[in-house]
Amino acid sequence: MNHATTPTESERFIRCQNLTKVYRKGDQEIVPLRDLDLEIARGSYVSLMGPSGSGKTTLLNLLAGVDTVSRGDLWIGPNNLARMSRDKLAAWRAKEVGIIFQSYNLVPVLTAFENVELPLLLHNLSRRERAARVDAALATVALDDRAGHFPRQLSGGQEQRVAIARAIVADPPLLLCDEPTGDLDRVSADIILDLLDTLHRERGRTIVMVTHDPSAAARAQIQLHLDKGSLARTVHTAGHTAAREVHA
To answer: Which of 39, 173, 215, 242 has its CA 20 to 30 A from that of 29?
Structure first.
């Protein structure tokens, strides 16, 4: 197994320590993540791979603050998500995380502009400030000329680009991607992956992406392979040492 240099205190962004998630179904206990130890440096681009049931989606949901930790600690920056209430997690998520879904999750009755604006309604911004941010986000994904279009008037690739604009409009440091190219053809998928590359390299975003697509995973600096709730293998792109398995 490859091990990277430990991120320094200033570099460290995500730290999972004995991270465990337990679900109960009747008398049955389901443990998709068990005692996971992991560090990811700020500004990393990480892909999560593994078979169905390996724990990768569970980990993504915990990183997003949409699910709660059962045991252990999950630090993102100075915040320990394992010690936060659901209300505090929701407030934290609105400022710190952008999420990109496989199915886009756009509101069909809203235009591209209005879909991208949605996260900003949770922030104390004027209408002019919101409009400026939305315009900039749509320009970043090269869809400023589609601002007035509804999702049904866009291709799948364009819908996903709108979803990316929505994810970045509040300028969060962390982007979480759940199979962002899963519903797209190869050409559209490559456009989305090129956008993620740009957000990582030029905007300094930390990106964690769940994918089953080896070509998508290869775009990341580090490929983390999960199996049965544990880190089974870490693959580094040459010259990158931004994530590692931690042994307490």
So the answer is: 39
